[in-house]
Amino acid sequence: MMMRFTYILIALLIGTSSCKDFLDTKPTDFVTPSYETVNDFELALAGVYDILGNRTFYGDVWPYWLNVSTDIEYTNTGSANATVYIYGPAEANVTDFWKALYTGVYRANLILDVVDGTDLDDGSKNRIKGQALFLRAYYYFMLVSNYGDIPLYLSAKPSINEMDVPRTPMKEVYNLVVADMLEAEQLVDEVEGGNTEKTVNFGGRVSRSAVQGVLARVYLKMAGYPLMDHSKYADALKWALAVKNSGLHSLNPDYTDVFIKYAKDEYDIRESIWEVEFYGNTQGAMQEYTYYIGARGGIRTQDAELGRSGGLINGSGKLFDLYELDPNSTTVPLKDSYDLRRDWNLAPYTYVGTPGVKTPNNDRWRRNMGKWRREYEVVSPKDISTSPQNFPILRYADVLLMAAEAENELNGPDNAYPYINEVRRRAYGLLLPQPPNPDVNADLLGLSKDEFRQAIKDERAREFCFEASRRTDLIRWGNFVGDMKAYITWALANGGVEGHVLGSRNVSDRNVLLPIPTYDMSLNKALTQNPGY
């Protein structure tokens, strides 16, 4: 999909603004553009947004290279590389991820350095400043949650004497993230139907709901490992409920339609609150595509009309088993599930031959990632290795499950059931006009606090598999290494083989954080390395 701004693809503009590999050179000075008009700032904002779709962020590195191997998903290449936690400080994907995020910070700082001093009307100034503040905060959130203590740059004009910038303690970084997001929340527009002068009607632009929902995510992280500030559960609940109580969002009754819309270039901001914009098919100038769908993941096929996919990303047998079986099912060898998400997320078929013939896949350990299906794409011709399908950063289902998790941690499950059960009812098809199993009971009830906590973990796996959240969830829940190691024993006792647990074999305590890139340490002598690297 194309970002509905008039300022797509501003690489040339940013490139003339001394944005050459932000942390690759020791800065002597940065040239800040003299932006004057709304259009000038919109062009600059496009540069800040553009980082999201970069190959080194959501376009490939984040969902695939750094997050593809957990207890619920894996890549079947068998390669000994970063996808299975084999990396060090010189790893290209780790370095490129760091560079991309800091480039986003730099581009946001270019705007924030000058926007307050312009003659723009207050409405335009607020919208521009709010988006820049939030995006800078989001990039810093991704940096601090993956690298730990990091250097902070709050201006695009560091002094010539500030070439060696030490790492700021992560708590201070989180405090900055929160402060920027809280300010941004008051400045950006609401989604369509809200009360601001202008409203947002598509998920590619930051809205107030996006800020509020990501604030809930940040506070949940602060409440978990490593800060373990449990007081932040109250803040997480507050901001999740701000989204819910706005009345501007709801679940799409059909889980599959959420992802079909990404393929068809359709927006549903009620469900998909914030998403990464991808567009094009490698032909022409206007394009920013993802390798995660196509070259990496999807339903395996060589049929170009359907949309080629390597089918390299599979769900694990553990994920398959998390979906409740229909005890009355007579299908063999695998029973049907009451949970309609299972056979969508874990494709029960592949395509064989050209043209592709749909062929059943009854191996619960080797089902392809079916969440994004290239057969629904409307861009033509379809590229052989990339896809224009958007990627969700924040969905309304996440808001509900964050509210449920925070409520349980604060007060136990009594008032948390409505949030998780709403997600489960959609999953079981009970929100559809004609539910396939109208008498099924999808609701949870009568759980202890610990049991509900486990139910949240399992529900997040079922709902958000392949959306690059499982590793970060396991880390913030505080037992990433232990969970990954326990998975080895479970997998090998339940039909799995060594190829399914490569990532778990390689995980150690050091993998809770990524290494600080060697190249940047050679430039910034004040940097120190994370433990284990």
Overview of the molecule:
By secondary structure, the protein is mainly α. The chain has helices at residues 11-15, 38-50, 61-65, 92-112, 122-147, 170-185, 208-223, 232-245, 255-263, 317-322, 342-345, 396-411, 417-427, 449-464, 470-476, 480-493, 502-506, 518-523, and strands at residues 73-75, 272-276, 313-315, 349-352, 357-360, 391-395. The strands form 3 sheets. It has a two-stranded antiparallel ribbon with strand order 1-3. Helix 5 packs parallel to helix 7 and helix 7 packs antiparallel against helix 8 (232-245).
Short description:
The chain is mostly helical and 533 residues long. The protein has helices at residues 11-15, 38-50, 61-65, 92-112, 122-147, 170-185, 208-223, 232-245, 255-263, 317-322, 342-345, 396-411, 417-427, 449-464, 470-476, 480-493, 502-506, 518-523, and strands spanning 73-75, 272-276, 313-315, 349-352, 357-360, 391-395.
Structural class designation: mainly alpha
**Rg calculated over all Cα atoms:** 23 Å
Which whole number gives the mean pLDDT?
Answer: 92
Could you tell me the number of beta strands?
6
Task: Please tell me what the overall shape is.
Answer: globular
> How is the largest sheet built, in terms of strand order?
1-3
How far is the N terminus from the C terminus? 39 Å
Strand content: under 5%
Q: What is the H/E order?
A: HHHEHHHHHHEEHHEEEHHHHHHH
